[in-house]
Design a protein that fits this description.
Layout lengths: L8 E4 L2 E6 L2 E7 L9 E4 L1 H4 L5 H13 L2 H4 L3 E3 L5 E4 L5 E3 L6 H10 L3 E6 L16 H11 L3 E5 L7 H18 L4 E5 L6 H4 L7 E3 L8 H8 L14 E3 L12 H13 L4 E3 L8 H8 L1 H7 L8 E6 L2 E7 L5 E7 L5 E6 H4 L4 E6 L4 E7 L1 E6 L4 E6 L1
Parallel strand pairs: 4-5, 4-13, 5-8, 8-9, 9-10, 10-11, 11-12
Antiparallel strand pairs: 1-2, 2-3, 6-7, 14-15, 15-16, 16-21, 17-20, 18-19, 18-21
Helix pairs in contact: 2-4, 5-6, 8-9, 9-10, 9-11
The structure holds alpha-D-galactopyranose.
């Protein structure tokens, strides 16, 4: 399908419909999945190719014990490097680090969590393990038999133009739908070919918009602050994905991790923790589980925020919330403490409004016309304005 066709797309009751003049075609049914941005954990950012069955079990244990599950983190997702070889029937077996995938999925489910897995539309994954090319239905059936709830489908070695790419994603989506099991479909192709404009039509519940994040302020800020403009492509069931969280992985400052979390919440981005959950500082856990900040991300209206104003390194971002209030991030990308001002006219707020600091969990009273606050280097003040 050409992208120009994708313009007459509408959504009703969880169904994506393509309208061509008087003809409408149902393209995909989102099965009510991912009505708010998916929350959970993914093995890649911390464990990369070393991930084992034991690491995944320990992440599941931790997510329950440390309160993350209660805060909304539900998906425990295995990324690349779980795969072994295909047998003569084409069945893909996990490698020796994953002795029994069904037992692992049962274990994760027994904790009231959901479990995710990873593959590629190409013959090889990004780490050169077996992909699903030519085995889509077989793999999808196997995932469903194991009890998989989420698939990250990573472009990697796939070759072809945008039409071939779209067909490959449709093929796997149809294979997933055919299993009858609701499985969140996460597209990963680094934002090529304006994926946000056709992601929903191939059944994508989320799609990566960028190259891989790394645990550095430069990488996180480049990706996060670069998302403005994509907001009209996000909606319940269909999210822009600026990649997984690096919070707690150790190479950013506390203020930088607060910026990471605040920005991802304003962006209505998936919140997939990428650290070692079993070895986390209380500060990291506090950043990941602040309920008022998570409520911004999980707001049922599902509106992605945008940059409302910028003055040099100082940026004000806004996300409208379902109760009529606004989440507002005052960011300082500069190298020293600076005052940042959010003018109410920029963020669409009337004459006077009450302001609450969501990280400090403190009401700041009623303010007129604008709100000014000191923001540390690479830091943020995140407020709710009503
Ligand atoms: C790509 C993806 C990453 C991760 C690796 C695994 O780089 O973008 O998120 O899944 O592959 O190999």
């Amino acid at each position: 399908m050409k992208m120009s066709l994708a313009q007459g797309i509408t959504r009703a009751m969880g169904v994506v419909i393509l309208m061509l003049g008087s003809v409408s075609i149902v393209l995909a049914q989102d099965a009510g999945l991912a009505r708010t941005p998916p929350m959970g954990w993914n093995s890649w950012n911390h464990f990369a190719c070393k991930v084992t069955d034991a690491d995944v079990r320990s992440a599941a244990d931790a997510i329950v014990a440390n309160g993350m599950k209660a805060a909304g983190y539900i998906y425990v997702n295995i990324d690349d490097c779980w795969q072994g070889k295909r047998d003569e029937k084409g069945v893909l077996h996990p490698n020796e680090k994953f002795p029994d995938m069904k037992a692992l999925a049962d274990y994760v489910h027994s904790k009231g969590l959901k479990v995710g897995i990873y593959s590629s539309p190409g013959p090889k994954t990004c780490a050169r393990y077996e992909g699903s090319f030519g085995h889509e239905e077989q793999d999808a059936r196997m995932y469903a038999d194991w009890g998989i709830d989420y698939l990250k489908y990573d472009y990697c070695s796939f070759k072809g133009d945008v039409d071939a790419q779209i067909a490959a994603y449709v093929k796997m989506h149809e294979a997933l739908v055919k299993t009858g099991r609701p499985i969140v479909f996460s597209l990963c192709q680094y934002g090529m070919d304006r994926v946000w404009s056709w992601g929903p039509t191939v059944g994508g519940n989320l799609w990566r918009t960028t190259e891989d994040i790394t645990d550095e302020y430069r990488s996180m800020a480049f990706i996060g602050f670069g998302q403005s403009g994509l907001e009209r492509f996000a909606a319940p069931g269909h999210w822009n994905d600026p990649d997984m969280l690096e919070i707690g992985n150790g190479h950013m400052t506390h203020d930088e991790y607060l910026t990471h979390m605040s920005l991802w919440c304003i962006l209505a981005a998936p919140l997939l923790a990428g650290n070692d959950l079993a070895k986390m500082t209380p500060e990291t856990l506090e950043i990941l589980t602040n309920p008022e900040v998570i409520a911004v991300n999980q707001d049922p209206a599902g509106i992605q925020g945008w940059r409302a104003a910028q003055e040099g390194p100082l940026e004000v971002w806004v996300k409208p919330l379902s109760d009529g209030s606004k989440a507002v991030g005052l960011f300082n990308r500069g190298e020293s403490l600076m005052p940042v001002t959010a003018y109410f006219r920029d963020i669409g707020v009337g004459e006077a409004a009450s302001v609450r600091d969501l990280w400090a969990k403190r009401d700041l009273g009623v303010v007129r016309d604008h709100f000014t606050t000191q923001v540390p280097k690479h830091g943020v003040v995140l407020v709710k304005v009503k």
